[in-house]
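$ fold --in a.seq
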Amino acid sequence: MDTQQLSHLVDTVIDEMLAQRKRRLQSHNKVMRVVLSGEDLSTLPSTLECLIALERCGYLLVIAFSHSARRSLLQSHCLQALAEQGVEVICDNQPPSSAQSNYHDIFFPALSTNSLSKIALGIRDNLVCRWAFHALSVRKTAIITLNPECRPDRHSALPPALKARLMNYASTLTEYGFTVIGLPESTPGLRSRRSLITLSDVRQHPQGQPLKIDSRTLITPAAQDEIRDRHLVIVQPLQEDLCIWQR
């Protein structure tokens, strides 16, 4: 096989892979866009738990990694761990376009401090920010979980004033229309009912008080176990259906 034939074969394989990916996206009615940012590997276990739960719930995962995530080990570790769990994903690091609105919701796990600040300030100079504002423009549900250094319930080396500023930024995102997980219930602009409940959320929930959810609430498997262990009561409007993440 000469060089020209090899080049033609490679092009053919690439075209077929792209065509297969397009057919999967068009045929799947539950597509979750996921955008991973930062380079902190300590956030990966909780992120993987959420992604595996989404896949078990029937979502096709289309994942984009920020520039910092691609430069660090976050992208390779994430894709390897998902493959080991038998979770098939589509990796798409292209910026959003008008044609890329065929997804159900979008998820920004452990949003980096850098991207949190830029989104709050309306800056769109990286992949994460572009996907965030694209989701708003096409009226998709955008769910964000805060990274540990930004969460008020976690120890952080950040100066109190800086942490307070980041909390204000997170609150600003809720005003834009994002669902931000990890903010105190008293934070201005926070929606009264969560769209995503994690193990940390359940552990912080007061014993004896009902856990209020709505029809779009997703509960991670570890959070489900904690709910059962603590015998918490889940309350939702009777007219709505409960949606729980299951393995």
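$ fold --in b.seq
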Amino acid sequence: MAWTPVCTKEDLVENSGVCALVAGQQVAIFLLLIEGEQRLFAVGNYDPIGGANVMSRGIPGSIGSRLVVASPLYKQQFDLTTGQCLQQPEYRLPCYAVGLEQGMVSVFTEPLCTEQQASAA
């Protein structure tokens, strides 16, 4: 387990997503502007409901205090910090630690939460 550099901060577009390959897995990375502060989030790129690698093309936003990304396929919203689907809680995206150091964005190779944890919750 290690950190994988994936891109520079300049490669990211604020309030949008990009896809990167991390340890053989597609990861969607989002740079969001929240209350004037830029924050990074990383979740699995595979939409378990739509069955396609599209989450990096999803629409980021918020529902109440929860930061979410809406799938571009069927529009279900997934929490960016837990991966949990708000409409269908039996589904969850893996979520990853993501960091910024000296302008380089890195993602931890092992997810913090996984799809399998959703069925146990």
